[in-house]
Amino acid sequence: QSQKIAIELDEQSLTYNELLYYAQCLSLEFLTNSNYIPGNVACQCIDRSISMFIGMLSIIMAGGSYCSLSPRDHEHRLQSLIEQTQNRRERNIRRWL
User: Fold this and answer.
1) Three-state DSSP class for 57?
2) How many other C-beta atoms lie within 10 A of the C-beta of residue 91?
3) How does pLDDT run across 25-78, given as a tens digit for each residue?
4) pLDDT at residue 23 tops 90
5) CA distance 43 to 66
6) Nearest to residue 40, comparing CAs of 83, 87, 79?
7) Which domains occur in the chain, in start order?
8) Whose CA is closest to 89, among 71, 67, 62, 72?
């Protein structure tokens, strides 16, 4: 089961083992090298990609609530969405991928 394809998008794919590995690594990085507090909302601003799914899973694994933001949205809209989640800072965890 762990070698079966978990995600396939365009020309890319990840097995369940690979997805779990990358999500665990990112989750650990997120918890140890940011000011994130488990239980808070974490926003991720990224285009639809396999990295987006890794980020989503890692936020949940870190004990967070996930909020997806589109980089195509206007800056004011993004700021409004972030404020609505009562998140003080946007968490774009893409830099850790």
Assistant:
1) helix
2) 24
3) 999 988 898 888 888 888 899 999 999 999 999 999 999 889 899 999 999 998
4) yes
5) 6
6) 87
7) 5-96 (3.40.50.980)
8) 67
